[in-house]
Amino acid sequence: MDIISLKKLALLGAHNKPLELSSVEFASYMDSSQQTASRKLKALEDENLISRQILSDGQLISITKNGLLALQKELYDYQEIFSGNGSNKILSGKVITGLGEGQYYISLEGYRKQFREKLGFDPYPGTLNIKLDTQSIELRKRITGHIRISGFTDENRTFGKGSCFNVRISDIEGAVITPERTHYPEDIIEIIAPMNLRNHLDIRDGSVVQVEVIK
Amino acid sequence: MDIISLKKLALLGAHNKPLELSSVEFASYMDSSQQTASRKLKALEDENLISRQILSDGQLISITKNGLLALQKELYDYQEIFSGNGSNKILSGKVITGLGEGQYYISLEGYRKQFREKLGFDPYPGTLNIKLDTQSIELRKRITGHIRISGFTDENRTFGKGSCFNVRISDIEGAVITPERTHYPEDIIEIIAPMNLRNHLDIRDGSVVQVEVIK
DNA sequence: ATTACTAAAAGACGAGTAA
DNA sequence: TTTACTCGTCTTTTAGTAA
Questions:
Q1: What per-residue confidence (pLDDT) applies to B161?
Q2: Distance in angstroms (rounded) separating the CA atoms of residues B152 and B138
Q3: d(CA A60, CA A68)
């Protein structure tokens, strides 16, 4: 994702109203060739970060909802850096039953290997799904999953990439996993841990739990 | 400048206290190879954005003052995007006499050509230097020069790059030029315009002027 | 274990140009 | 004028490996 180009377009005002901008002008702002500018605009469009209307004498560029979300995430990251707030964030919500997809995905060796290496534990084959309360949904938006999980391909299909961040739930350290999909629900988190959390913590659907985000 | 790597280091806490991080760990956070991670850390160090202490089992990484400034600039950009503030910024200060360097530089064809193309006017060979008041110094820090001026090399030496942003002073549209140098004073701006501003506006050293930042 | 060099592969870039 | 393709070149990345 070319956040630098997207940011420039936003600074030029493309987040408010359609921006008239030719590839030559954009090239001048980006200090690149017209060709590169054109290619970058096209790439942003392909990623659904901007939408364009190409005219005979230039283009009308608007930043999409998706693009705005990406920029907002970036803002949150920088705010986080300068917040000077050492206290850990706490997400709260209720335990729900997921679709069972998580169980399938995390048991794939392509992901499991990465969890072992990057998180330091072998996950129990199942996820604890939590429906966040309203406040926690907002808080969750501001958290970037630092730990990147790469996608991979087996003989049949492609498995997408994602990210994680470490959490503590009661005395257990686990991680929230987020697939990098376009329409992943923002009100639900999936937690993996070294053991079955439902058994270990004696919780069931509807139980209210608090999840502390740790570094 | 690799702002993405620098941001990641800051999010990992390298802006508060020295961060223990091996190139392999950083590679995992950046989803790259160890070699690339190592090279990027080295590059950030070479640019004086981080300082490092390389140990036998990893490194201690701190973000330098310079690095923090770069991150802050980025924060300001994103805040600007989401500020929803349509009103134009106004910088104010007093006219002073510069070192006369500006006159020399802007008359070089390598720069002048770019001013004509990117600003739309041929600058009068001289700059109006303004010493900003305290408030304006802060405001100025938050402005990114959108218009990039490339460096170039003639037979004798290399001329650095820089950036501009458009301003209006009374009825004249000109631009503030900022060389991309490490120790450029933050309390002075240099304005170029199509004509001699001192004559046109009848101002002299000590005159208080207001400069409106325009898009 | 580390960091980081070299060499080769992969990717990005800009000149020329078609539409 | 535009946008954006191809293609040669330059830059960046990674694998292998030395220190």
A1: 86
A2: 31
A3: 17
Q: Are residues A92 and A127 in the same domain?
A: yes
Any CB–CB contact under 8 A between A112 and chain B?
no
Examine residue B206 and state whether it is found in any structural domain, yes or no.
yes
The parts of chain A modelled with pLDDT lower than 70 are: 86, 182
Q: What is the pLDDT of residue A126?
A: 93
User: Within this chain, do residues A34 and A139 fall inside the same structural domain, yes or no?
Assistant: no
The answer on pLDDT for B154 being more than 80 is: no
Same domain (yes/no): A50, A113: no
Decide if B148 and A117 are in contact by the 8 Å CB cutoff: no
Same-domain check for residues A20 and A97: no
B70: nearest CA in chain A? A78
pLDDT confidence of residue A86: 67
Residue A14 belongs to some domain of the structure: yes
Total domains, chain A: 2
Q: Do B11 and A147 touch (CB under 8 A)?
A: no
Residue nearest to nucleotide C12 (CA to C1'): A36
Nearest to B148 among A7, A29, A150 (CB): A29
The pLDDT score that the predictor gives to residue B205 is 97
Is the pTM higher than 0.90? The answer reads no
Residue B129: inside a domain: yes
Candidates A3, A147, A215; nearest CB to B13: A215
Is A52 at the interface with chain B, CB within 8 A?
Answer: no
CB atoms within 10 A of CB B137: 17
Question: What's B206's domain CATH number?
Answer: 2.40.30.30
Residue B7 sits in a domain whose CATH number is 1.10.10.10
Tell me the pLDDT tens digit for each residue of B85-125.
767 899 999 999 988 888 898 999 889 988 988 898 999 99
- Structure-token pair, residue B212: 């409106």
Whether residue B71 and residue A78 make contact (CB cut-off 8 A), yes or no, is yes
Q: Where are the beta strands (DSSP E) in B75-122?
A: 90-96
- CA pair distance A114, A116, nearest whole angstrom: 5
- Give CA angle at B184 (B183, B187), nearest 5°: 125
- The answer to whether residues A50 and A92 belong to one domain is no
Residue B100 lies in a domain: yes
On whether both B119 and B208 belong to a single domain, the answer is: yes
Residue B97, judged by CB atoms within 10 A of its CB (0-12, 13-18, 19+), counts as exposed
What is the residue range of B46's domain? Answer: 3-69
